[in-house]
Helix-turn-helix domain-containing protein (Gordonia hankookensis), 406 residues
Amino acid sequence: MTTVRKDPAADPDEELRLIATMLRDRLEGLSAAVALAIRHDVDYYASTDAVSLDDITTTVRANFELVVYGLTGDERFDTSQAQETGRSRAAVGVPLPALMHAYRIGFQMVWAEFKSIAQERTELSRSTLLDATARMWQAQDAFIMAMAAAHRERTTAKILDDASERAALTQHLLEGRVSSEQSLWEIADILRLPHRGPFLAVAAAAATVGRAPLAGIENKLRGIDLSSAWRLLPDQQIGIVYAPSLSARDQVIGLLTRTAVGRVGVSAPFAELADTSRALRYARVAMSGKGEGVSVFDDSVLGVAAVTAPEVTADLAAVVLGRLYQLAAEDRDPLFETFRMWSAVGGNVTDTAERLFVHRNTVRHRLRRIEELTGRSTTAPRDVAELCLAFEVDEHFPVAGRQPLS
């Protein structure tokens, strides 16, 4: 056991300067040893080359030079290097727990070096050793706290920057403002989306400006292993979802139904990212349709035709269905319901009657009524095509009350 001689005449400041000088003389070797220990003992540093051994060594030395310098005074430690370390390590993705572990290793090894000096220089007074010990622990607290605060600040800023970039790129992708195939791939990588689908485009109406109608949807989708990207606009929330199978699409629709607080439109599946803006257009059409909840756009020829030139198709629907719109709702609604079901089952009267729980004669009577009011036959192919398109348009656009072009 080493005995420390108590010298009443010893100058504490001079002794602290001696300790600091001896530590400073050993910093080069100590910094290299600390860097090796960090590389070996901290899992993050041991498993990645994101920070080189030379960089670790340089950073360790820069921090400890300020620690040693601060041992000789009563003022606050200069923690600027610790702050810079926190910021720079956060920028390259070093986790805060790993960085804190590295600092603890460093201070433990500096403390061991300080202990070695105390054992070598037995003339040092007890009070000086106690003062130096207290300053050493103050330095550890100050440097780790400064480093951690800077790391959290930079991480928060990086998260916000990343979120802003992802939101902007999502909007560019969904609105078709992408210049090249390479850009599509780059955007997909940043958004953490596959380069090929199937994808779904989604548009959700916001009841309150700036408030997401599908709150937390990205995390909820991630919870069922589906990647997505979203952008909140003043009146809508738009997004793209990777849905690789029919089961996945059903999961997406179910989740949207449970999450939505307003009207939501979903596109038909599409394979190429270059088609995203067109898919979003169809999702918005589905969103603006009648009813409540989630609507999936019909990507049939009729569905696409109905929305391709809305001004033209809405005029057509107004011409064809004009007299139907003049009926009272209780008379009009059964006719619309019957025609849609009749067309959905391929024009089969019996199946239509079974689906609507009415007699076949009722179906025939309603179809004849539609023929009378529209001037179109339900047996002539051209007339049936016009009727189907007009009813499809009615599904997507407000046609009732529209004055058709003469």
About this structure: The chain has three domains: 12-158, 196-299, 307-396. The first strand starts at residue 196 and ends at 205.
